[in-house]
Write a structure and sequence with these properties.
Blueprint: H1 24-30, H2 34-45, E1 48-53, H3 62-71, E2 87-93, H4 104-113, E3 117-125, E4 143-144
Parallel strand pairs: 1-2, 2-3
Antiparallel strand pairs: 3-4
The structure holds flavin mononucleotide.
């Protein structure tokens, strides 16, 4: 959708960037994992982000937090600023009735504390397993605030 609107966007699925759980001793011994370096470079190169997350027990999944933590660290290329001053939008979905809207609160807090401007508008899609047709469009039920 971003590309349709002429936005130069890069789609990232965290599944494509496996990395170990953050461990300071591991970092001291081996430095930043290669996939964390790749993701950090992407964050540094982009002006803004649109993060779509599932909700785990009212919060963000450990996968997302682990990536956020790794790429907040300095690396050998010394790309130090992946977050500060960037702009971000957030969205969630879940198979349940709340559409993951509770994860949007900690997500907003996490990135706000990293110096990201999280725009006030946000989206959650409930009953997500029924929300899209076989072509992936259009969403039937969207909660936008
Ligand atoms: C550990 C765990 C906690 C979950 N907690 C919530 C929750 O708080 N709210 C919710 O709507 N769904 C919750 N779910 C259901 C997820 O929304 C659903 O499993 C979703 O498909 C997860 O997306 P993923 O497969 O991309 O991780 C939870 C699922 C797991 C595995």
């Amino acid at each position: 959708m971003a590309e349709e609107k002429g936005i130069d966007a890069t789609f990232v699925d965290l599944r494509d960037y496996p990395m170990p759980l953050y461990d300071g001793d591991l970092e001291d011994e081996q430095g930043m994992p290669e996939n964390a370096k790749k993701l950090k470079k992407l964050f540094v190169e982009h002006d803004g982000f649109f993060i779509v997350s599932p909700e785990y027990n009212s919060s963000y999944p450990p996968l997302l937090k682990n990536v956020v933590d790794w790429i907040s660290r300095s690396d050998s290329e010394d790309l130090v600023e992946p977050y500060k001053g960037k702009t971000m939008a957030i969205a969630a979905s879940s198979p349940g009735g709340l559409g993951g809207m509770r994860v949007l609160v900690p997500l907003r807090m996490l990135f706000g504390n990293l110096g990201v401007h999280v725009v006030p508008s946000q989206v959650s899609v409930n009953f997500v397993t029924k929300a899209f047709d076989e072509n992936g469009m259009p969403p039937l039920i969207i909660n936008a605030t």
